[in-house]
Amino acid sequence: MARKPETKRRVKLHGFNNLTKTLSFNMYDICYTKTKEEREAYIEYIDEQYNSERLTGILRTVAEIIGAHVLNVAKQDYVPQGASVTVLISEGPVVEAPAPAEPLDAPAGPLPAAVVISLDKSHITVHTYPEYHPDEGISTFRADIDVSTCGEISPLKALGFLIHSFDTDIMTIDYRVRGFTRDIKGRKLFIDHDISSIQNYIPDEVKAQYDMIDVNVYQEHIFHTKCKLRQFELDNYLFGYTKEKLTPEEQRNIAAQLREEMDEIFYGQNMKRKP
Questions:
Q1: Over the stretch 102-122, which tens digit does the pLDDT of each residue have?
Q2: 127 catalytic per annotation
Q3: Which residues neighbour 258 within 8 Å (Cβ) at sequence distance 6 or greater?
Q4: d(CA 210, CA 226)
Q5: Which residue from 156, 237, 230, 160 is spatially nearest to 197, judged by alpha carbons?
Q6: Which residue out of 31, 52, 122, 165 is catalytically annotated?
Q7: Contact between residue 198 and residue 212 where contact means Cβ atoms under 8 Å apart
Q8: Is 227 a catalytic residue?
């Protein structure tokens, strides 16, 4: 008689799942801004495109993907730039909670801002950081998103959506599981799902576009993945014009500066430029 295939049994817990799962998604967008006017125009563009409305839309979708419930939203755009958003979320429906202030299908997109979404014992936060080189004309836009959940909902479900929501040259992604919960016999469980790498949760078409490095500490349930865009097209890094307006020498010098900037961010260290 043929043996029936084994099925993975669901572990019965004693009370609430107390594990905390945290996904940290860090992205960089890099741009060459030769003059002060170009830099100011780039920052203005970031401020217009990545406002609190659009970032709130991203966080609402993240909450929907992981199965959390939005209870309340508060957001604020700042002068001259930046914004903040705070959203209260619960893992399950709350009867007394007010209706969300905005529909869940709000437009998604990044912004130069700080955003916090608070869950019932969990939270989602976003902070953004525009920055520029004082001498060489390179501007960077960085966004940090943390999705921390308690219980059975997993922040990893939203990773693919987050990647597609931002135009990224460099990504640093961390995932860790903390605390413990107990089964009905009192035995501690320090993780409740199988994972070998964050790359398991990155879409294949995205992995094909990036060089990746993993640093994983399995016994501590710490997972780290860095990604750098493989293809380099100078026109994608010029703000307001194309490379045809530059001499071949200017194109080579700017491309070298941009590649060096990307390598330093990716490897986390300053590098001496080759002559």
A1: 333 333 333 334 555 555 557
A2: yes
A3: 30, 32, 138, 232, 234, 237
A4: 9
A5: 156
A6: 122
A7: no
A8: no
Catalytic residue among 14, 90, 118, 127: 127
In 3D space, the residue among 253, 33, 19 whose CA is nearest the CA of residue 139 turns out to be: 33
Number of CB atoms found within 10 A of residue 112's CB: 26
Four-CA torsion 55, 85, 172, 209, nearest 10 degrees: 0
Are 146 and 122 contacting, i.e. CB atoms less than 8 angstroms apart? no
Condensed to tens digits (0 to 9), the pLDDT of residues 119-141 reads 555 788 888 788 888 888 899 98
| DSSP per-residue string spanning 61-110 | HHHHHHT-EEEEEEEEE-SSS-EEEEEEEESS--TTPPPPSS-TTPPP--
| 8 Å CB contact between 124 and 63 | yes
Q: Provide the whole-model pTM.
A: 0.81
Distances in Å between the Cα of 115 and the Cα atoms of 11, 54, 82, 141, 156 are: 35, 11, 10, 15, 19
In the chain, what percentage of residues exceed pLDDT 90?
Answer: 40
Exactly one of 31, 123, 150, 165 is catalytic; which is it?
Answer: 150
Summarised one tens digit per residue, pLDDT across range 196-228 is 999 999 999 999 999 999 999 999 999 999 999
Active site includes 122? yes
